[in-house]
Amino acid sequence: MAEHALARESRGPALSVFGRNWAIFFLLLMFVVFVFSGRNFLTVANLQTVLYSACTSLLLAYAETFVIIARGIDLSVGYVMGFSTIVCAGVIRDLYATQFGVHWPAGAAIAVGIVAGLAASLACGLASGLLVARFRVPPFIATLGVLGVAYGFTLHASDGGFPIAFLPNVMTGIGNGYVYYYNPALHAHSFFGPPAGTTAQQIKDLVRLFPNSLILTLVCLVVLWHLLKNTRFGQHTYAIGGSLDAAVRAGIDTRRHLLQVYVLSALLSGIAGIVWVFQTGQGNFVPMGSNLELFAIAAVIIGGASLNGGKGRIISTLVGVFILGILANGLALSGVETFWRYIATGVILIVAIVVDQLFPDLF
Amino acid sequence: MTRKSGLAGFLGQRWAVLFLLLEVIVFSVIGEGFFSLNGVQIVLFYGTSLFLLATAETFVIVTGGIDLSVGFIMGFSAVVSAKLVAAMAVGGMDPLPAILIALVATLLIGLLPGLLSGFLVGWLKVTPFLATFATGGIVYGVSLLLTGGGETKGVPDLANVIGNSYFMYWAPGHGLSFFTRPEVVRGTRVLEIIPSMLVVTAVVVIAAAWVLNRTRFGRHAYAIGGNEDAAVRAGINIRRHYMVIYTASALFSTLAGLIYMLEYITGKPDAGTSYLLDSIVGVVIGGASLYGGAGTVWGTILGCLILSVLETGLRMAGVPTFDKFIAVGLILILAVLIDQFFPELIHKED
Amino acid sequence: MGYLLEVRNIVKRFGGLTAVNNVSMGVSAGEVVGLLGDNGAGKSTLIKVISGVYRAEEGTIRFKDREVEIASPMDALGMGIETIYQDLALAENLNTPANIFLGREKMKKSLGVLNVLDHDYMHEESRKVLEKLDILIPSLRNKIKALSGGQRQAVAISRSIYWDAKFLIMDEPTAALGVAEQKKVLDLVNRLKDHGIGIIVISHQMHDVFSVADRLVIMRRGEKVAELVTRQTNPDEVVSFIVGAETVRK
Q: What interhelical angle do A212-230 and A254-280 show, nearest 10?
């Protein structure tokens, strides 16, 4: 027995680096290919576009990461995001744009809107979590049911799917803003807004660095990474995913823990929804069939997690999201039509799974 | 292994039958024209695609898997068959042979994604969720590729006639006729009974139920779903079995797409995507367990009827479609909770 | 010297079925008692009563010379009565220290503010307890999945010992183990005796039972049909009690 363990360790390093990091290698490979095949792929502007649009995908994928590690699944992430978007935007509009005869200042309206959006997502998370943890409904069904209800409410609140407009302009300023601006014409730079005196013609020549929305996503990244790696919560999530029995017998309150996991997932989806309002300046709902949840799950799996639970990491999920994001971006810039994205995603996913099958112990 | 077969299983869904009756009564009261031959036919008409896709899912779910590609395969087969027929018609072929050839060809082509999924699940031990998601994505991409995003035109009207024909017609003075509309004087009311496509669906569903209930293949499916290891040790060739199961699922999905093409004389990649969740819901309401080993085709049909009645009833009662999602979500949760807390209502012989 | 753990006149019923019918037995500190019997004899039920999974309809339990009530698994664990089930209840995707400390992880302060898992402490403590029990596991950082059956068994046992188990119940400890590993586990059980732990071992393997058990309690159809001193009996006699060829010899 000792010999086997030792032998496996010595085989370990070389192959395990590959097995663990095949996704990163693949990402780099794709990157290189697109540098050559894509128009303007390797530009500051384009890369920031990728980062910018990855924000919501990252948050949804982080949500799925926790749930999947715990051997569950959350099909509602995309629709909870849409629900929170609509609630947030709706509240802001109603308070700010004089719908009910009130006209709150933008800041207050936005603050209340954010709280409302988060509360909406929290409600969904509680529903899913209770169904799974307390009533032992299979997660597939529980989150499917919750998404149906959330979607219905979303449609109601948006009058059938109309975007909610009349939001304060400052929102897009924050959502689409960057940290650092440089105006070459004026040789002036500034933070969080274009330099004073920038004219309309100069706007398109501005050098912009680091989208604001990315800040929030990075903060979430760090917090969630810490949560998963360094806390009891993270450790117990892995344990529950690996063996629910072992966790129960070790005295872990698995019911409460699972509830927390689904609430966390919904909250992250809610945050994604709010980010989206800031990014688009409107409340757009998420139509049925957008498959956001499937892409989030795919990203987590490509990153190395298993639907059987017990495995998965925040950084790996990040890689998975970028593989899918850069794929879409690169293909578009290479002049390839969107349907290849589906085909390519399918193929990459198959590769990811097969590699996972062949090197299961190395993640 | 809690297998409920045939009629016993069907009647075992006591609460589901009651629920269905309740629905029918409620909608008959609040909806205009719901409780009529017309209403019934609308329900069943909407249901045809759902029944087929849900039957596909039943096969897969019984073995403990899931198939996310059914909707995409349906769209794919609609697109492929439409394009084939249109191409042949433009090429000067008579509509009838063109349609027949296209149908048969598509039937065969549509099996390919099933073979791929079956291979992934059976040989490479890929989890069904991912295998079928990947396959479905690929199929969807190919559909988009074929149509360039638009709808196909050029399908001869004969297809439409076939797709929208009825099994029986009754016209005063002409008596009963089958499959072909009687030539009547303008203005005479012709009674249309049972759409032909529904008959086709019924035949397929009955055959599927028979396979699952009465053949060794079907028994093996339940065994695999109940305990894969035990099935392996009992000598069942699970690799081949998975291959056949997922191919069968693709077959049913392809059929659904063909019927779609005949009804609407066009093919869209999206044709089936809205049915995916409903089909799984129908299977679950019908008593299957997502872990495998239980469930019947009849139970699934019952579950689908509940959904289809709900959808049609809400529409005819003028309720906005948003509430359909809420209702379906709630019903789904209700179904599972009932199964959990009152198993006697479902598992009659346990 | 009194028993460490003693059960008197335990009766456990499930509906119309009496699974355990008026069974009394005791285990002293540093003693191993083998609990034997065919399937359905009531062994599992009896140990589940002791470990708190079931509550007996009648009878008493005495631990360390005091009558106690064991109403739930938590009660049993709190007293130091631990059960090692056949499936070991280990999380295969975690490593040895993580399993030993599962549910009771040690935290430390990082950067003065954050509470983080103290992996080093848990690693060191695990190494110490494994060393104390003379168990060899080459790398504690490997996930449990990489360990052999015997090593996993050892980890499960070490976990109980680390958390101060006074009494261990082991359900089929050597089932599914190879010969060499079986010996290692049995050696470990013998070492536990030296630490003053009281142990009940359920096993179908006659050889195992005879190599570690000091006394044997045999159940049949819910009743205790024999209590023997291992040295004074032999496998044939034991088997005959299990299947019922001999009458009661208490």
A: 170
